[in-house]
Amino acid sequence: MRAFIVDRYGKSDNVLRAGDVPEPVVGEHDVLVQIHAAGVNALDVKIRDGEFKLVLPYRPPFVLGNDVAGVVIRVGGSVRRFKPGDEVYARPDEDRIGTFAELISISEDDLALKPERLTMEEAAAIPLVGLTAWQALVEIAGLREGQKVFIQAGAGGVGTFAIQLAKHLGATVATTTSAANADLVRRLGADVVIDYREDDFETVLRDYDVVLNSLDDETLRKSLRVLKPGGKLVSISGPPDPAFAREPGRPWFLRPVMWVLSRGVRKAARRQQVSYSFLFMRADGKQLGEITSLIDAGAITPVVDRIFPFEATNEAMAYVRTGRAKGKVVVKVR
């Protein structure tokens, strides 16, 4: 089958090589999916560049890609929830990535039926950012009606989804974006929109319950100061904390490293009487099923900036690297 392969880590926009690889093996609990579309994420760029070699030690050559929408063509002997012909989508487990390809084998537990109201391209834009927002706001932060949440970079992939999810949960939402994207984030539900080029969010926001951080270390530390005592900061951009290092499958030597890397922010959080958590989202078909229900009910709509043909996957990666995408970038495979 055709796929885009990482032969070596590197920051060149032509690192991915189009080539042929064997069809994936389908285990007892696996589902073979014919890929119609694949989302392209900043995570894909960082993996290709080698930024996650310490925690995600993929050995080249490997197929890249973390979002998929497609059709089931075969199931393992123990699979009960899916059958050939089902339209599905997923964020594969971190050990089984490879959606920039024509086929992928995915654990039944990581898969969900595709929202009926979405095209394949729209569905492929959802899993990674949707699960990230769900695990940050629902699972970790426990965001609820009447609370205030600050979601950074509201026009990005995670931001556009998280704003809609937070509004569905009944929260007041503040976000940062450029003036050019202010109308977009307001349409998605943002109540307070801060032009990051003109204003410092730290001088505008006060007594927030939750912050979803996706930017740099300076922004992270400023975000701690907009929380009220007892507030929660969830970061998807680091630094990883000791709890992350203790997750099953992480190498033992990460524990002292993560403890040192996150010591400063954890100490600052204690001074502010708030909590700090790092999130590296995980595959979860059950949560994705909850997200499907929200989408089919009209509570959340994907935001897709551009759709590239499969043969232009490197160009799609280059566009994501610019940081200018509004919502998600997708590759149409079939």
Summarize the structure.
This protein is an alpha/beta fold. It has helices spanning 42-49, 120-124, 127-140, 157-168, 182-188, 201-204, 217-224, 242-245, 254-271, 285-296, 313-322, and strands spanning 2-6, 16-20, 30-40, 62-63, 68-75, 87-90, 103-107, 111-113, 148-151, 172-177, 192-195, 208-213, 227-235, 275-278, 304-309, 328-332.
Would you mind describing this structure in some detail?
This protein has 334 residues and is of the alpha/beta class. It has 2 domains: 2-125 and 303-332, Alpha-Beta Complex (Quinone Oxidoreductase, Chain A, domain 1), CATH 3.90.180.10; 128-278, Rossmann fold (3-Layer(aba) Sandwich). The chain has 11 helices and 16 strands. It has helices spanning 42-49, 120-124, 127-140, 157-168, 182-188, 201-204, 217-224, 242-245, 254-271, 285-296, 313-322; strands at 2-6, 16-20, 30-40, 62-63, 68-75, 87-90, 103-107, 111-113, 148-151, 172-177, 192-195, 208-213, 227-235, 275-278, 304-309, 328-332. The mean pLDDT is 95.
Question: Portion of residues in helices?
Answer: 25-40%
Query: Mean pLDDT, nearest integer?
Result: 95
One letter per element, helices H and strands E, the order comes to EEEHEEEEEHHEHEHEHEHEHHEHEHE
CATH class of the largest domain: Alpha Beta
Sheet-strand content, in percent, reads 25-35%
Specify the structural class: alpha/beta
CATH superfamily of the largest domain: Medium-chain alcohol dehydrogenases, catalytic domain
Radius of gyration: 19 Å
The tally of domains stands at: 2
Principal-axes geometry comes out as globular
Low-confidence stretches: none
Distance between the termini: 13 Å
The quaternary organization reads as: single chain
Number of helices: 11
* CATH topology grouping of the largest domain: Quinone Oxidoreductase, Chain A, domain 1
Keywords: Oxidoreductase
Enzyme class: oxidoreductase
EC number: 1.-.-.-
GO molecular function, one term: oxidoreductase activity
